[in-house]
Amino acid sequence: MATAKWNGSIIAQSDDTIVVEGNHYFPAESVDAARLRPSDHQTTCGWKGVASYKSIEVDGQVNENAAWYYPDPKPQAESIRGRFAFWKGVVVDGDSRADQTPDGAECETK
After folding, report:
1. How crowded is residue 66: how many other Cβ atoms within 10 Å of its Cβ?
2. What is the DSSP string of 51-105?
3. Those residues with Cβ within 8 angstroms of residue 101's Cβ, 6 or more apart along the chain or in another chain
4. Per DSSP, what are the bridge partners of residue 10?
5. Cα first-last separation, the chain
6. pTM (global) more than 0.70
7. Which end of the chain is more exposed for a tag (fewer CB within 10 A), N or C?
């Protein structure tokens, strides 16, 4: 079971994460949607596509653009469609799963 926490609150929890580039991608249904806030921020990864972001709010504190997802990933990244990953102080604990990053695929942008 993997758990993503920020500010002492569980943001996501699942035993069905996919690890890509060292990040656990949680199924959307395992993420506490009540904690997510809209964001217009986007970045592009050469092999995954365009990432969209959400901010996280816990007890009135906002962690801007701390969750990301790929609404329309490129074919090599299809396995992460409908999944969220986290950064910017969100602590992810859980079992270490095999990283599913395709050979030679690198994403320098987050």
Report:
1. 24
2. EEEEEEEETTEEEEEEEEE-SS--GGGGGGTTEEEE-TT-EEE---PPB-PPTT-
3. 20, 21
4. 5
5. 25
6. yes
7. N
